[in-house]
Amino acid sequence: MINSSLDAYRSLQGQKLNETMKVLTLFASIMMPMTLIAGIYGMNFQNMPELAWPLGYFMALGIMAVTVIVLLLFFRAKGW
Questions:
Q1: Is residue 59 part of a domain?
Q2: Model-wide pTM > 0.70
């Protein structure tokens, strides 16, 4: 009887851990592309054509927003 209740407790703990890991994976998957884009545009290179564009900053922000929206739609379609 004690073993079965201990197994049930461990099963519930495993399910909680799986839900936590799913949320952390989702958060990391959304933040990673934005971090990559910010890291690339944060480098001080002179020969990046986008740096001279008047809307280059907004283009980078737009790419980040589109990436987040696409990932959110993808994860929603997967049922996460």
A1: yes
A2: no
